[in-house]
Design a protein that fits this description.
about 325 residues, mainly alpha, two-stranded antiparallel sheet, 2 strands, about 75% helix, globular
Length: about 325
């Protein structure tokens, strides 16, 4: 991508890491007690995380210019949109495990830390593959098109943790029991340390997020292979996932057509990767940003109109 091939110095990585660590520390301190996150609090934290993401894009603009900034914002919007699908699956998992609302923030916090780690590994691995293997873009592009098709045609996702390989393996290796023990991940029961059902729920969410991470990282690598831009766009989008969950968990069914918009974006990212390996070359970042914004606006508007029509019909 033109203008996005710069190599970020070590101090830039350290500075971003320090900012993220500081914000996470504030978040932990604010939720050190187990309490139900109400809508007002969730909206406030969502505003904080979104402001941080937008502000960082402005920093990129001032530091490196418009090209990298547009690439960052395109990736940030794409990751933010894809995270809505995560929220729906997390809501199903919490319902399956009957996780009390007061403990859900704790699970999501540690889930986000794991998500940041997974994405960092996938970003560097994916960028390296695209750089070294000329056919990797074709394979990754085909994978994204298939993922978009699967998202468009699927019904409600199957989130049965009993069929999840990671959860089954964890239960086989680690003694667990079915109580929550005041929101702790482990507890001593009959003289033996065991994992609580809250820990099992965390494993289920982390295992599910690995799949999300592969899809989202592959999609954003279609925008730019600059690891610094990809990582920061991912990080700032994922950091707001907890607040987004508490804002949208009860409203997701009103956005019934959003998944079609996400499917279009995934397929577009796949086509973009494939075209980059042809004489057509890489599409401009401004076009990517325009497609992301227009697709999301159309899907959300379509969902809102359909929801109002259904309400009137009742």
């Amino acid at each position: 991508m033109e203008g996005t091939t710069f190599a970020a110095p070590a101090w830039a990585w350290l500075a971003v890491g320090a900012v993220i660590a500081a914000m996470l520390a504030v978040d932990v301190f604010s939720h050190r007690d187990h309490h139900v996150v109400e809508l007002r609090e969730a909206l406030l934290w969502s505003a904080v995380w979104i402001t941080a993401g937008i502000t960082f894009g402005l920093v990129i603009w001032l530091w490196r210019g418009s090209g990298p900034a547009v690439a960052y914002y395109s990736g940030y919007l794409l990751e933010k949109a894809l995270s809505v699908d995560n929220v729906f699956v997390f809501a199903l998992l919490f319902g399956y495990f009957r996780v009390p609302p007061a403990y859900q923030h704790k699970v999501l916090f540690w889930g986000v830390l794991g998500a940041l780690g997974f994405r960092l590994v996938f970003i560097f691995a994916g960028a390296e593959l695209l750089d070294r293997l000329t056919w990797a873009g074709l394979v990754l592009g085909a994978f994204l098109i298939w993922t978009g098709w699967r998202l468009a045609v699927r019904g409600e996702p199957d989130v049965d943790p009993d069929r999840n390989v990671a959860v089954r393996l964890f239960r086989r290796l680690v003694p667990t029991e079915s109580r929550y023990h005041d929101g702790r991940f482990t507890a001593r029961v009959d003289g033996r340390r065991k994992g609580t059902v809250l820990l099992v729920a965390l494993v289920a969410i982390e295992a599910t997020d690995v799949v999300f991470a592969i899809d989202s990282v592959a999609a954003i690598l279609a925008i730019t292979t600059n690891t610094f831009l990809v990582w920061t766009a991912n990080a700032f989008a994922v950091l707001g996932l907890r607040s987004l969950y508490f804002c949208l968990a009860g409203l997701l069914r009103h956005f019934g057509y959003l998944r079609y918009g996400l499917a279009v974006l995934l397929a577009f990212a796949g086509v973009k990767l494939i075209l980059a390996e042809t004489p057509v070359g890489k599409l401009p970042v401004w076009l990517t940003l325009a497609v992301v914004v227009l697709t999301l606006a159309t899907a959300i508007g379509w969902s809102v109109v359909a929801a109002r029509r259904d309400t009137r019909a009742r």
